[in-house]
Structure formats: C-alpha cells, structure tokens
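Table S2 (continued). Query chain:
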Amino acid sequence: MNDIKQAAAAFLTEFSSVIFPDGFLDNYDQIECLSSGHGTETFLVQSKDNGSLFIAKCYNKQIHRIEKGEGSILRGLSHSGLPHFENEFEDDSTLCVIREYIEGTPLDRYAEENELGIQEAVRICLQLCDILIYLHTREALVIHRDIKPQNIIVRPDGRIALIDFDISRVYDSKAETDTQFFGTRNYAAPEQYGFMQTDARADIFSFGVLLRYLVTGNERKNDNITFYRPIARIIGRCTAFAPEARYQSMADVKKALQKANPRAQRLRTAKIGACVLSALALLTFGGIKLYDYVTFDPFAEGNIPAVMTDADRVSDAVSYLKETYGTDLFDDAENYATVGFVKTVLTDVYGYNYEYVHALPADDGIPHESEENFFPWGMGDEQYVDRDYMVYVTVKVYWPEIVSEENWSTLKDDNGYYPGVRLAVAFAEEHGILTGVGRPLDITMGETAILLANAGRVSTALHAE
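Corresponding output:
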C-alpha cells in the first residue's frame, strides 16, 4: 500500500497541472497516465475502497462542451461488450468520468502480433456487429463515431469490447448537421466532416474500414491487393461514399458476413427441402447430410470456401499454408510442380526424413507400400506432377492408413491405376479435397497448395468431431 501511495504522490507531482474535482482524489489513486492532450487526461486509477482498477477520463470544460458526454451515455448502457459506468466527478472547470477497466490487448496490436486470417477477422467483426446492433437499436440510438482498432480491446478469452465513447452522440432526428467534426482520419465517414448529420450508417462506414484493415493490413483501398471476393464486396458496400448506398443497419451487415460464403446463398433452397422431409428421413444418413449442409458455417475452422475464382483459391491456399507452416515454397504458384518440388514440400513443410522421401523402391516386384520409402514407384525429380499423383501424396500425408495395402481388397476391379492412388482419389472426392483442382493432368504449385490446404482443413474438421 505504501508503494501505491508513493507512486501516486510522484504521479501528482508530475501532472500537477491537472485540477481534479472534489471527491476524485479522496476515492481513487492515480496509477498511470495513459494519454494526455486536446483538453483531456486519461488515467489508470485504483479504488481506495476495494483496490479495483478503473479508467478515469478528465475533460477540461473550457475546451470540451459537455452535453451528453461519455458518462451520460455509458450510464444508460448494459452490454458485455461495453465498459460499465462507475462514477463521475465534476466542478466548474473539469469533468472526470470513471469507467470499468477492461483487461486485454488493443486490436491494432493484437492484429500485428497474431497475423489475422479472414476467419479470425470475421469472428472479431461479428462480435462487433452485435455490440453496434445493441447501440443502434436502443430507444435513444447511440452512434459511436470512432470505430477503429485502438478503441477495440481483445480480452484474453477472445471476446472483444468497444471502448472510448468520447465523441459518441445520441441521435437527434431533428438535427440537420452535426455541430462539429469528430472522428479519426481514414475511419471517419464523409458525413462526419460536417456535410450532414451522422446516423448509424457512419458507424457502418467505419466498420467497413476496420474490416478492410483486419483483412489487408491497411485502412485504404488498394486495388492491387486481392482477397476473398464476398468479403471485398461487403467492405465496398459498407464504405460507399453516400450513406444511402451502404447497408442500412448493422443487422444487415452481420447477415451479409454470415452469408459471405456463396455456398450459404443456397441455404434457403436447402431449408425448403428440409421442411419437406419427414421426421423419419431426418434420422437417416441423407437427413444428417442435409442438416450438415444447412448448418454449414463458412468461417468455421476446417471448412473450405465452395465458390471462388482460380486465383482466389490459390491465394487462399498459399496463405493458409504460409500461416499454418510458415512456408514460402508455394509463392511461385503459376509454375508447374515437379517431383523434386513435392519431395521438398514433404521434408521442409511436413518434416519427413530426407532419406525416406528420396529413397527409391526395390527394383524387384511390383510397386507396393513400404516403410522404407514414401513413394511406391520411382520417378525423376524433374518430372511434372499430375493431379492424382499429388492426391496420393496429400492423402498419405494426412491419412496414411487410407492408402495402406490392407485396404486394397476393397477395390472392385483393376483399371490400371496403382491401388493406393485409386483409394486416395476416392477418399479425396468424398471429402471435398479435390475442390478447386478439376483437371487431372500436370498441375501447378498453386494447385498442389489447394490440395494440401483442403486436406489440412478437412483433417482439422474431422478431428474436431
């Protein structure tokens, strides 16, 4: 306790220019000044009563016109994604608002430290949708007007909280314009520059910029950066210049995010079919499959986007392998894959022993699975790889038991293909691993990436069941 008092005394000496209202220093010890400027001071404070930490934001009333400020807005809110109001102290010159301290990491730092993919970005943004839906559908509609990564805290358990209601306002349907400009450059909607009154669509604009930042790493639009098109379309509509061209509610934005995978656009048709089925049929294998189809979550771990352009698929697969294994081997995606390239992938990405991968099968006898060598046949490193050869490699990496000789007896005939390849292709067709690689001839490094990424996601999904 003495250390806290000494720190508080030193702190007050350093920030003696701040004049606090009566009662503030009687109830709280200042621990740290978090920010200072533009007539505001933000402190981390500790309650003298129970030792709890809070955030205190003190406003110079000669600079800030306090009408319905952060305190009055937070006082009327109750949501797990928002800080709760704690206390308020005021005199003629200063207003200090005390709110809950939320432990976690600001989203901008969290994004830098974790290299977010589209799935994680969407997970975060869907949470933000729920918070903004709560604010925008209250009887006294609250517009945040400063949606940006620095104002979003990612808690240790992954849940987010929206903070900093400094420039928030309660919507006034009678007002024609805002009284002054507020917002953060790049994130503020055009109407926040004073052209008209801001409404909930200003937050939708900032939300779109935030989503772009999480997906691309940059707030500004860059046509040279390509990513999953359904998400790109959502960002484009959110950030339209004219408010009437944007989504008109956060509920619409949330629905668009949930349906961003084009496969989910067929949800209505599937639901109609499900309604026709009898209760008995739902218990059959076909009914279970239909249920899985209807409840498909496009952003769940392990799922593969169903409709993408070839370039989108390759980019998605290369990014997945880079994020999962830290490899750059697939960057030259347009080059044709060779046997030597595949061997390098097996050793450098999947950690197979070099001798095992490069060992040639015995000269005598027909090709067969062996513990001595990965490939049951000999091929030169310079030879191009056809699709079914790579499917065999892919399935053997993730499910080696599928191609084992114990399963050869399940094949009904001999069509000239190596039995392990036939089993691998059948397994890949059943589980969607071939999605995006249609031609059976020589394939590119990008197409090998698609097969491996598809298999990785399927493997993750199967293990989660």
